[in-house]
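Q: How do we represent a protein-ligand complex in a form that can be generated cell by cell?
A: Start from the inputs.
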Amino acid sequence: MTNPKTDMRDDIKEVVVSEQEIKAENKRLAAKISSHYDDGEEVIMVGILRGAVIFMADLAREIDSPVIFDFMDVSSYGKDAYTSGNVRIIKDLEENIEGKHVLIVEDIIDTGLTMKRVVNLLQTRDPASIKIVTLLDKPERRVQKKVQVDYNGFEVPDEFVVGYGLDYAEKYRNLPFIGALKEHLYS
Ligand code: IMP
Ligand code: MG
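Then emit the C-alpha cells for the protein with inosinic acid bound:
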C-alpha cells in the first residue's frame, strides 16, 4: 500500500495567527510571567500533552526564571473534535509539586473542562501557587466559568484551529502558524 502524499496547507481555510504574531506574543507573555515570580524562583511548567509541547518549548526559552518541565496527558472520552466533558488523566506528573510554583501550559482553552479538572487535581497537592498560561482562548464556548486564566495569548473565534502544536486527528501539529481547518474536514 502506498502512503498518500498530501499538502497540509491545502486543508487550511485561513491563517488565524501568523508565525510572527506567535513569536511576539510569546515574548510578551514570558515577560509578564517572569515579572510575577521573584528572581531565581523555580517554576514547574506543566505542559498538557500533546498540544502544548511546541508552545511550551518556545515560551520556556523566553522566561527568565529557572524552570522544570513536567507533563500531564489528559483526554476526554470519544474521538470527536471537541471535549465531551468526561475528562480522564492518562499520564500524571513525575514531580512532587508540594510547596512549588506551578505554571500550567495549555494550547487552547475551549469549554474549560480540561483545565478545571487539571487545576482541581493539582490543588490537592498543596503547591505554593498555580498559574495558567494558554496560547489560545475560545471564550464563546466556555462552559466552566470558574477557570481563571492568568496569562492569555489570542482569543480565537469558534472555529476548529490547528497548527503550532494543535491537531485534528493527530495531524497539522507541525504547521508553524495557527490556521482554521476547512469545515468539511472535521464536521
Ligand atoms: P476544553 O476542555 O474544551 O477546554 O478543551 C481543551 C482541549 O480541547 C485542548 O487542549 C485541545 O486539545 C482541544 N481543542 C479544543 N478546541 C480545539 C481546536 O480548535 N483545535 C484543536 N484542539 C482543540
Ligand atoms: Mg489539549
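Strands lie at 12-17, 43-49, 67-76, 87-91, 101-109, 129-137, 151-155, 161-162, 178-181. The chain has one domain: 22-158.
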